[in-house]
Amino acid sequence: MTDRQPSQSDELLTAYQRAAEIGGRAPSVHNTQPWRWLATRTGLQLRADRSRQLRAADSEGRLLTISCGAALHHARLALHAGGWVPQVKRMPDVRSADALAEITVSGHGTATAQQRRLFDEIDVRHTDRRPTVERKVPHDALELIRQAAADEGASLHWLAEPDLDDLAVAAARANEIGLADAEQRAEMDYWIGGTRPARTGVPSDAVPQTAPQTDVPGRDFGRPGTLDTGHGHARSAVYGLLFTSGDQPGDWLRAGEALSACWLKATDLGVAVLPLSSVVEVPATREILRRMLAGAGYPMLVLRFGLADPDQAPVPGTPRLPAERTTWPGQIPQP
């Protein structure tokens, strides 16, 4: 009697489970990892996990959905790298705001060089809150990063010098509002060094000891971390405003896919990335960003691009939940 050979449905289930695990390595606001996967032999479903939503800072779920979009792009790359051709249906169930995407495959295929390069950067990509060095990111690299976002249905608008003054004021104001709001402060304290679930949140070694020298302030976490910021100044950094033509959940999801694509492309090119999400959390400061677009679209996220100091130690990676904590086996549990 011979051992049973794995069927194609078995191969697909393994591929979908692997894609869900890779998707879990995506960046997310405060490293909340607000996604749930359902992997079966017929497809992979992505759903929002509202238990890890920032209810105070992200009441609409914009940043949650952007985070899930990044996970969706990671999962797509995993399937491409595994020799499959993924097909995605976004926002598949109008009856459920939590149903964000369904992935199936149309057959075997070969990953493009671009897909392979982006996939290879998934475990290298990280957030670096330290200042960048005093060298400009090459224009050709910025164009490749911009194109990576465009390929996923979103746009990157490079902010000019006058815009940076407004951005700096908006970022500082967003920090003030976030720290002054009791609910937002408690929420941030929970996810940064608090009693958050194990393997989630932002660890102290990813939070600067002191405020980095930069023209545009990053998020003020309200507490110091242990990350040595060095003595540089991020004045050579370039700031991009990621935006979409609409402002609905489907647009937020696309923005997350574009975030993943341009971040991985930047990593491939040796460019450090710092997302500035606090400035889009506050309606008043988000409106300042929208005016910078002059009616072209809706701001989703500000991204700082720069060259990291090669003499600094690597930033420790943030932890991730094990796949069994974010993937349902077989079927979605009923409430």
From TrEMBL:
<feature type="region of interest" description="Disordered">
    <location>
        <begin position="197"/>
        <end position="220"/>
    </location>
</feature>
<feature type="region of interest" description="Disordered">
    <location>
        <begin position="313"/>
        <end position="335"/>
    </location>
</feature>
<dbReference type="InterPro" id="IPR000415">
    <property type="entry name" value="Nitroreductase-like"/>
</dbReference>
<dbReference type="GO" id="GO:0016491">
    <property type="term" value="F:oxidoreductase activity"/>
</dbReference>
<protein>
    <submittedName>
        <fullName>NAD(P)H nitroreductase</fullName>
    </submittedName>
</protein>
<dbReference type="InterPro" id="IPR050627">
    <property type="entry name" value="Nitroreductase/BluB"/>
</dbReference>
